[in-house]
């Protein structure tokens, strides 16, 4: 990504928070903001083919675990919020599913509400996420894309763990506060070594947030919940049988 020219944003764009609030879809925008912080990337690039600067916004997920979620949730959400209709592309080389657009109005709106351009580093949750309802929606969107629901196998009933690992300690700290504000009991671990064979050191430094136990899981489902079938299927099976796997 190169430096963009000074007049790159000279045109007024149509989206506004006021518009989403008037349409009563601000909670959906909060959810989509959470999914953006999880799977999304926003940048501006000089495209040699067009000899022009353009924004690019892209969602990237795991094709095995997230394709159904992209079909049932992400794609319809982008259409409802922004009128965006894009096919889901599959990259067989790295087993990812992708939705991308160069639409300037969407990208500039996302930048204006406070989403990061370029690398997601020292991320601040956008200021419009200022109520418990919007915080819950943002948490659900982030969890659907970047949290895991796992279970520690036990004799009677498997022990649930909701967790995420992030490279950005600032974002993790904010998620911790949001969880606390909703009555959950999160636990955080900073500066943990996470095995990564793709880099020279063999590991990367991550920061982890965990919600342990049945009480946290049931409270999460009551006040936040999941829309991702990946998480919902696990929860429903565990709730019915006490086990995470048949």
Please explain how this structure is put together.
This protein has 246 residues and is α+β, with helices and mostly antiparallel strands. Helices cover 41% and strands 24% of the residues. It contains 8 helices and 8 strands, in the order H-H-E-E-H-E-E-H-H-E-E-H-E-E-H-H. The protein has helices at residues 17-22, 26-39, 63-82, 104-112, 132-146, 169-181, 213-223, 229-241, and strands at 40-47, 52-62, 89-91, 96-101, 148-152, 159-166, 187-195, 203-212. The strands form 2 sheets. The chain has a 4-stranded antiparallel sheet. Strand 3 and strand 4 (96-101) form a beta hairpin. The longest helix has 20 residues, at 63-82. It starts with 16 loop residues before the first helix and ends in a 5-residue tail after the last helix. The mean pLDDT is 91.
Q: Keywords for this structure?
A:
four-stranded antiparallel sheet; alpha+beta; 246 residues; 8 helices; 8 strands; single chain
């Amino acid at each position: 990504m190169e430096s963009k020219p000074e007049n790159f944003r000279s045109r007024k764009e149509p989206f506004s928070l006021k518009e989403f609030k008037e349409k009563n879809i601000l909670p959906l925008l909060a959810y989509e903001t959470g999914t953006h912080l999880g799977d999304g990337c926003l940048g501006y690039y000089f495209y040699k083919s067009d000899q022009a600067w353009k924004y690019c916004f892209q969602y990237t997920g795991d094709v095995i675990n997230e394709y159904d979620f992209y079909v049932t949730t992400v794609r319809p959400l982008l259409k409802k919020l922004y009128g965006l209709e894009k096919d889901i592309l599959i990259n067989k080389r790295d087993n990812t599913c992708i939705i991308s657009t160069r639409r300037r109005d969407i990208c500039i709106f996302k930048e204006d509400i406070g989403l990061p351009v370029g690398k997601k580093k020292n991320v601040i949750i956008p200021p419009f996420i200022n109520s418990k309802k919007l915080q819950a929606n943002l948490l659900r969107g982030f969890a659907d894309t970047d949290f895991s629901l796992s279970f520690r196998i036990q004799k009677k009933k498997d022990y649930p763990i909701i967790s995420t690992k992030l490279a950005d300690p600032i974002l993790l700290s904010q998620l911790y506060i949001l969880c606390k504000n909703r009555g959950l009991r999160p636990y955080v671990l900073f500066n943990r070594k996470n095995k990564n064979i793709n880099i020279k050191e063999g590991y990367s430094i991550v920061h982890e947030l965990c919600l342990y136990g049945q009480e946290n899981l049931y409270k999460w489902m009551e006040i936040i919940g999941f829309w991702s079938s990946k998480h919902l299927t696990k929860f429903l099976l565990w709730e019915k049988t006490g086990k995470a796997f048949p």
